[in-house]
Amino acid sequence: MSAGLWLVFFFFTVVADAKYPPGGSYHLLSLRQNMKISKSKAELPFHFQTHYFPQNLDHFSFQPESYRIFHQKYLISSHFWRKGGPIFVYTGNEGDIEWFASNTGFMLDIAPKFEALLVFIEHRFYGESKPPRSAKAMGYLNSQQALADYAILIRSLKQNLSSEASPVVVLGGSYGGMLAAWFRLKYPHIAIGALASSAPILQFDKIVPSSSFYDSISQDFKSSREAGVFSTMKDGLQELSKKFRSCKGLHNVTAASQWLDSAFVNTAMVNYPTPANFMAPLPAYPVEEMCKIIDGFPPEASNLDRAFAAASLYYNYSGSEKCFDIENETDPHGVNGWYWQACTEMVMPISCSNQSMFQPFENDDKGDQEYCLREYGVKPRPHWITTEFGGQRIEMVLKRFGSNIIFSNGMQDPWSREGILKNISSSIIALVTKKGAHHADLRAATKEDPEWLKEQRRQEVAEMEKWISEYYSDLRQEEQGSY
């Protein structure tokens, strides 16, 4: 990496600011914000139908309010399904379910082979699956309620299809991957297995170093160019506004910092080996392209020019943007859903070490708590996820009671170091690729896919075949009275 890029990051770093949610939660939300899903609906894959399922607001109490109903959106395709065949369920993330269906082509690719029914379930409080809005209702937005939604919907669907013996495999990426893994652990009687792609289930309760996220991004860029040196830069807000082509005047350096930070962080996450439109139109291996842009400037060029040009690869690769709305990012979820989850259960601390190309900073637990109290009147519960789902000494725990989970990660994904990177047992396996990015394996196959990605998917299919074959074998024995 060139000296210019190191300079860029010394100046433009994550700045503590009350408008951003706690810790690593900004980066998960940032990924969603830059999908542009708030501007246009994703196109549904072929043969999908949209349905709505009545869900209780609260699955875990029997108070009158718990029976309030909201309608949960789900997508279904029976185009390849053979009755009695497997059901593949995508455990929805923090956003519109159409978007995830349109970017999870792996499920459509393998459906004919398995003669599988495909179901994509939207997460409560996101997309169209929103209960009545109130401060009290927000208390029912959490992963445990979401998993119960999935369990109830799946059971009802199998009954309505008169196919209760169909095996269910859950799949998900990122937060959805976390949910898929947790669903298999919490509801093993409903799902026979799970594919959890890019699932940072260890980014809680100080299980992994809080600097892992930024360390991984730094390594991505280091592997593309030689490391340079740090320096400083002193440009005023007026020059920044002009250089960044801000649609409106730039009033604080934090917005510019966050704008650049998002470009480099998100590009590292989606450093796919083929051109993609996952979060924004980008070329193959965009991290390398960013570095080429920076290194292509003459020595006398300003570092601000380098920074803006590199960020523009992410924000304007298509060349359609005339200006950038740097200070007015909005929450595409409409209810600040992920902000709320970050302030309650999804406490994912992030810091930046002095070994990173970013300016070092510490995770601010006190500041996070103040933000959450001010915005929502709640305190984060940093130990809740590990209490509910585990995580500490996970190898020792899961090999004694867990089974049939694939944890897939690409080491160029900043979230990979917070995931499971080695086999836990013969049926809880880690598929790790050196060049993989954020749940690259769940994307639709293309002719340009490298062999390592094809092999990763082949291994996933082989594991799923094994689970399903064993299930049907056990089912036959049960029907014959062997059990």
Automatic annotation (TrEMBL):
<comment type="similarity">
    <text>Belongs to the peptidase S28 family.</text>
</comment>
<dbReference type="Pfam" id="PF05577">
    <property type="entry name" value="Peptidase_S28"/>
</dbReference>
<dbReference type="GO" id="GO:0008239">
    <property type="term" value="F:dipeptidyl-peptidase activity"/>
</dbReference>
<keyword id="KW-0645">Protease</keyword>
<dbReference type="InterPro" id="IPR042269">
    <property type="entry name" value="Ser_carbopepase_S28_SKS"/>
</dbReference>
<dbReference type="GO" id="GO:0070008">
    <property type="term" value="F:serine-type exopeptidase activity"/>
</dbReference>
<dbReference type="InterPro" id="IPR008758">
    <property type="entry name" value="Peptidase_S28"/>
</dbReference>
<dbReference type="GO" id="GO:0006508">
    <property type="term" value="P:proteolysis"/>
</dbReference>
<keyword id="KW-0732">Signal</keyword>
<dbReference type="InterPro" id="IPR029058">
    <property type="entry name" value="AB_hydrolase_fold"/>
</dbReference>
<protein>
    <recommendedName>
        <fullName>Serine carboxypeptidase S28 family protein</fullName>
    </recommendedName>
</protein>
<feature type="signal peptide">
    <location>
        <begin position="1"/>
        <end position="18"/>
    </location>
</feature>
<keyword id="KW-0378">Hydrolase</keyword>
<keyword id="KW-0325">Glycoprotein</keyword>
